[in-house]
Design a protein that fits this description.
By secondary structure, this protein is of the alpha/beta class. It has 6 helices and 5 strands, in the order βαβαβαβαβαα. The protein has a 5-stranded parallel sheet with strand order 3-2-1-4-5, sandwiched between helices. It starts with a strand and ends with a helix. The structure holds adenosine-5'-diphosphate.
Length: 161
Amino acid sequence: MGKLAICPGSFDPITNGHLDIIERASGIFEQVIVAVFNNQAKSPLFTVEERVKLLEESTNHLPNIIIDSSDHLLMDYAKEKHADAVIRGLRAVSDFEYEMQITSMNRKLNPEVETLFMMTNNQYSFLSSSMVKEAAKYHGDISGLVPNVVQTALKEKYHHA
Ligand code: ADP
């Protein structure tokens, strides 16, 4: 039985799709570390510190979650933490090839950590941080797609800058 899982991602910002995966992981593992990895290629909107804070505020109802950030390789980070598994979410078929590539590289880097996939809840199949940012930028209604704290943070980013 696994004890510690890591949910890695950009979380720029956390959506209800991410939260659903985190909540389900927290019900299976004794402890879950949600770790923000800074993928500069994605030109993030929020700083790592802001993303960590939004994750903390969105998961404070869950007792066994730790929020962290890292600029190391995921598999080095997993080794350092003695993680049993890495959890990734899968939405549409389009996620599949990308995740296959990362997983096979990660397995080569650290064969001791298993990567597990959770299927998204249908209602979040087409939900991504980038879609949410695009909608928020043009004053679209994003209620129900992100935690309330994220809705507020997006308003501040786009309309009070
Ligand atoms: P990354 O840059 O590592 O892909 P993301 O923040 O985009 O980071 O995603 C983090 C994880 O959450 C990934 O495993 C991704 O597949 C998953 N994820 C993102 N959106 C959803 C969603 N709507 N439903 C389920 N899983 C999701």
